[in-house]
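ASSEMBLY PREDICTION REQUEST
Request ID: AP-0331
Submitted by: J.K., bench scientist
Number of chains: two
Total residues: 743
Priority: normal
Notes: Please return the full assembly, not individual chains.
Input sequences:
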Amino acid sequence: MRHLLAIEGLSPVVIGDLLNLAESYALLNRSGKTQRDRLRGRTLINLFFEDSTRTRTSFELAGKRLGADVINMSVSTSSVKKGETLLDTASTLNAMQCDLLVVRHDQSGAPNLLAQKVEAAVINAGDGMHEHPTQALLDALTIRRHRGKLEGLTVAICGDVAHSRVARSNIHLLNAMGCTVRVVGPTTLMPNSIAELGVTVFHDMPAGLEGVDVVMMLRLQKERMTRNLLPSSREYFRFFGLDAQKLAFAKPDALVMHPGPMNRGVEIDSAIADDPTHSVISEQVEMGVAVRMAVLDILSRPPAMPQGGRH
Amino acid sequence: MNGMVTNTLRDTVIAGARVIDPASGHDAVADVLIRNGLIADIGLGQGRPDGADYVDAMDAVLSPGLFDMRVELGEPGREDRETIKSVCRAAAAGGITSLCALPDSAPATDDPALVRALIARGEDTGSLSILPYGAVTRGCLGEQMAEMALMKEAGAVAFTDGARAIGPTRLMRLVLSYTKGFGGIVVQHPEDPSLAEGGAATQGELATRLGLPAIPAVAETIQVARDIALARNTGGRLHFAHISTGDALALIRAAKAEGLAVTCDTAPPYFDLNEIAIGNFRTYAKLSPPLRTEADREAVVAALADGTIDAVASDHQPRDADDKRLPFALASAGGTGIATLLPITLAQFHSGKIGLMRAIELMTAGPARVLGLSLGHIAKGAVADLCLFNPDRAWKIEAGKLPGKAQNTPFDGRAVEGRVLGTWKAGKRVFG
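STATUS: Completed
Returned structure:
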């Protein structure tokens, strides 16, 4: 594996290997030990074109726990508007001899474009509405730790599926691992032809949550209201916000997940978000570091078949 | 255009070609004699007048010079992308002897003086007639009507706002009504602006997978349905450019059957490619309208065959690497097309969907009829604008190796059949 740009296209074997390695890093992290020689001398650059304290910090911590030199570059949109293109940035990074490049960008496909031009291994930390692979991996790891497996589980992904890279990566990953995937949300927040990705579509929360093992909530951005996709957050919460009443339709021991940051009272009721019998939201954050350590580790290994030369 | 017809040229005999003239239905092997820029004779056994250039054209097809009714020139305003000089080279190599220039340049062609200037620039080339479209609105901004009747007097062949749809219904109604008064033709970019805004790919599974903002096919259907209703209401003369969907074609087919003065063209990407070409964020296949589904592509092919589509235009839109090497949604839409118009259209002949006569008609007499022009035919006394090509010769389209400046072809890597061997403009050989 040279880059991690998307979950779509990854085989169940590769996903399983990543999760196993991440699991071992999760145990290592809990034991308080480190493996600082693993990436010693390597440079990891967090290149964020979009603000995200949470994901950036998670990658930073993952890199540091493995001994990499970590540099954070926040590229404000204004400097992009000044004319510096992604490819200018790519040549800058090549000159800096970066080994691992973590990219967050508001445009779908931006990491793919960078990957064509940089020598570093590129890790997609979220691109537009396309994918957020490490989020799907950390979600899967969290589920697996609680249920012991992924195969055979039914997962409902709820909310603004249309604009969600988290939803897309999770759909691909959960399908690859043998889960049954449902998407639940209002029609205006459901992307066209989403069923073709192998999901069942629901526009009614009770029906969509009926008997599921896992409820994944998505963040709803305020902007959706101003663009007339929804009339108000009040109406949204009434029909699509996760509260005890709606959660009662899921299995009694259903897991509740959220990629963060949460809009309490919009897509999720605080009482649910903070309920330790269902909510695994803080464990998701913990697994995020472990998954990112595994990804950095795998991508910095020499290729298995070296006859192709340095690439 | 009389500046192009000179008396200093030597006679030329193009001998033994299969001469196909869709305007008259002529399809037979013949020798064609060119004298003083005109076709002096057509028939077998012309002999070889003293001092004449002799072109042995066995196994080749001689057609009227191709007429490309939709080209963005790059000039004035974006000479970094393409110039009239570079378009001229590409056109000659592509067998094109006349083209219509879109008005949304900088400045826009919204004034009779600019129309005259563009015509003169074409005449100066000696190899290409530039037939300008006039802007419907000043600056192509969609607000205030431009001086269309004055521009028509100056030589504008029809009126359009180029890549921008004439959006407001009231404006479109007035434009169709006003142009009817002086015999003007309105060319529409059929895309509802509010549905298309911010979109980058056609709505569907692929756009959803890639997480790209989508343009639904219904954006085209709605605009076409509305404009047909307005054409019926006003009696105005309406032409739709680059139709890309089956639903819009069904509406146009019905409007024609009803007897409305409605015509349409399409461009090679819409019958040769589908949305899959954007694959892994391939911006060279980002076009406007966006590449559609396979079912839409098949509907476009059927409409080429049944006559619903009147013309094939290249929809040439020059872009450079800086316009294209961007994240997909930010990249500029548009592809080059001048150098590939003939072979991609011929692909429909090679696959048996249309005859050779029809293929040529779509690039010659077809667009001439749409615009009411007399060019694009081979007849005794006609101006000798000619294209000689081998319909079977194979080559590969490669970005970076095409004639002209802009190299943003959506057909990069495509193997095609059909190569231009020679192009004549008013009797002068300008290519081959």
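REVIEWER COMMENTS: Chain A touches chain B through 24 residues (CB under 8 Å).
SIGN-OFF: pending second reviewer
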